[in-house]
Specification:
The protein is an alpha/beta fold. The chain contains 14 helices and 13 strands. Belongs to the kynureninase family.
C-alpha cells in the first residue's frame, strides 16, 4: 500500500473537508499511536479533565457544602447528566439518569420488570456480551426460575450476526421480556430496535436493550419507539473514562415502581432526608439510582458531553462514523484479501466498529499494538477496529490498513505466542 498515493491524497482531502476534524485537538491522543480502540475505552479529553478538576477544586474548597453549593450541585448530578444524555437516546429528560454500573443496572431493571405472570421466557441471543446473561440468569434464579428453562436464546446462523426473523420468531405468548443489545460487541451488527420492540409489545412483553456499543455513536429514539428500558456505559464512544458511572433509561409509563435494588439515592428528593424506613421512589428514572453517586467517577462525563454537543449531536458523529467505516471496509476489501469483514455492510445494520476476521487475529492484534496501532481482539478470530469520529480521521484509517498489510506480509504476528488468556 505504500505506493497508493491516490488513496492517501483522497483521505487527506476528506480530512481537510471534515467539519469535525478540529475535535481531535481536544483529546489526548497518545504520541505516535493510531488509536482504534475507542469502542473499548475512549480517549481522555481536555473537556473531561477540566470537569474533573472543577469538582476536585469544589471538594477542596466547599467540602460537604458541595452537595448543595457546587455548580452544578452534586446532589442532583445524576439527574442533570440524564437531562444532557436524553437527546442522545431520544428520551425525555426525566427518563434518563446516570447511576451505578451497566451490570448493576441490568440487575435492577430485569429484577424490577421481570414478571412470570406476563410471560416466563426472556428472549436473548447467543452473541450477547456475557455480563448480560450473568445478570439475567441471576435474576431468574431470584424469581425461582431455572435459567436454562426460562431463557430463550436466539442462535446465530453464521457466528457473526443475528437474523431479525429469528428474533421475531422467538417472541410468542410465553415471552414476558426481550432483552437484546443494540449493537453486537464482536461483529458490530446494529439491531432494528423499533421492529423488535413492536413485536415484543404485540406479544404483551416488555422490550429492553443494552446500548453499550451504540450510545454516542448511533442516534436512538427510545421514547418514540416505546422501548421499556435500556442500559449503557459511558467509557466507550462517550469518552467518560475507565469505570465511569453508567446510564439507564426507563419509559415514563413505568414511573413509580419500586426498583428491585432500591437504595436511598433513588428516593424522592423531597423526602430523602426524612430518613423514613420505607422507600419513597422518585417519580422518574432517578428511582433506579442505588447508593450515593460517585462525583469523581462521573464528572468527566460532564465535560465529555460538551464535545458531543459542540459536534452537533450524535447525528453528526454518526454521519462521519459511517463514512469512516465505509472507507475502512473498502480498504480491507481492496488490500487485505486474506481477511474477511464480519460486520454488516449495510450502514443501517452497522454500529461504530468493524470486525476484521483472520485465523491469526489474536497475534495480529499484538503485532499491530507493537507498531502503535491500538486495536483489540475478540474470540475467535476478530480484530476490532473502531474509528471513533471525534478523534480519528480518514488518513488514520488508511494508515491502520497499511500497517495491517505489512504485518501480514512480514508475518510479524509469528513473533508472538498463541493466546493463553488475559486481557485482550
Amino acid at each position: 500500500m505504500n505506493d497508493d498515493e491516490s488513496a492517501v491524497e483522497t483521505a487527506r482531502e476528506r480530512d481537510a473537508a471534515d467539519p469535525l476534524s478540529d475535535l481531535r485537538e481536544r483529546f489526548y491522543v497518545p504520541d505516535g499511536e493510531l488509536y482504534m480502540d475507542g469502542n473499548s475505552l475512549g480517549l481522555f479529553s481536555v473537556d473531561a479533565e477540566d470537569a474533573l478538576e472543577h469538582v476536585i477544586d469544589e471538594w477542596r474548597e466547599l467540602a460537604i457544602r458541595g452537595w448543595t453549593d457546587a455548580d452544578p450541585d452534586w446532589h442532583t448530578y445524576g439527574e442533570r447528566l440524564g437531562e444532557r444524555l436524553a437527546p442522545l437516546v431520544g428520551a425525555d429528560p426525566e427518563e434518563v439518569v446516570v447511576a451505578n454500573s451497566t451490570t448493576v443496572n441490568i440487575h435492577t431493571l430485569i429484577g424490577t420488570f421481570y414478571d412470570p405472570d406476563r410471560g416466563e421466557k426472556i428472549v436473548v441471543d447467543d452473541l450477547d456480551f456475557p455480563t448480560d446473561h450473568y445478570a439475567i440468569r441471576a435474576q431468574l434464579r431470584q424469581h425461582g426460575r431455572d435459567p436454562d428453562e426460562a431463557l430463550r436464546v436466539v442462535e446465530s446462523r453464521d457466528g457473526r450476526t443475528i437474523d431479525i426473523e429469528d428474533v421475531l420468531a422467538a417472541i410468542d405468548d410465553d415471552v414476558g421480556m426481550v432483552f437484546l443489545p443494540s449493537v453486537l460487541y464482536r461483529s458490530g451488527q446494529l439491531f432494528d430496535i423499533q421492529t423488535i420492540t413492536e413485536a415484543a409489545h404485540d406479544a404483551g412483553a416488555l422490550a429492553g436493550f443494552d446500548l453499550a456499543h451504540s450510545i454516542g455513536a448511533v442516534p436512538h429514539r427510545l421514547s418514540d419507539i416505546g422501548v421499556d428500558f435500556a442500559v449503557w456505559c459511558h467509557y466507550k464512544y462517550l469518552n467518560a473514562g475507565p469505570g465511569a458511572l453508567a446510564g439507564l433509561y426507563v419509559n415514563e409509563r413505568h414511573f413509580g415502581v419500586t426498583p428491585a435494588l432500591a437504595g436511598w439515592w433513588g428516593n424522592a428528593r423531597e423526602t430523602q432526608f426524612d430518613m423514613a424506613l420505607t422507600y419513597d421512589p422518585a417519580h422518574s428514572a432517578a428511582a433506579f439510582q442505588t447508593g450515593t453517586i460517585s462525583i469523581l467517577a462521573t464528572a468527566p462525563l460532564d465535560g465529555a458531553l460538551d464535545i458531543v454537543e459542540d459536534a452537533g449531536g450524535v447525528a453528526a458523529l454518526r454521519e462521519k462514523s459511517l463514512a469512516l467505516t465505509d472507507f475502512l471496509i473498502e480498504l480491507v476489501d481492496e488490500h487485505l484479501p486474506e481477511c474477511e469483514v464480519g460486520t454488516p455492510r449495510d450502514p443501517a445494520a452497522r454500529g461504530g466498529h468493524v470486525a476484521v476476521e483472520h485465523p491469526e487475529a489474536y497475534r495480529i492484534s499484538l503485532a499491530l499494538k507493537e507498531r502503535g496501532v491500538i486495536v483489540d481482539f475478540r474470540q475467535p478470530d476478530v480484530v476490532r477496529i473502531a474509528p471513533v469520529p471525534s478523534y480519528v480521521g480518514f488518513e488514520d484509517v488508511y494508515r491502520t490498513v497499511e500497517h495491517l498489510r505489512e504485518v501480514l506480509d512480514e508475518k510479524e504476528y509469528e513473533e508472538f505466542e498463541k493466546q493463553s488468556g488475559g486481557v485482550t
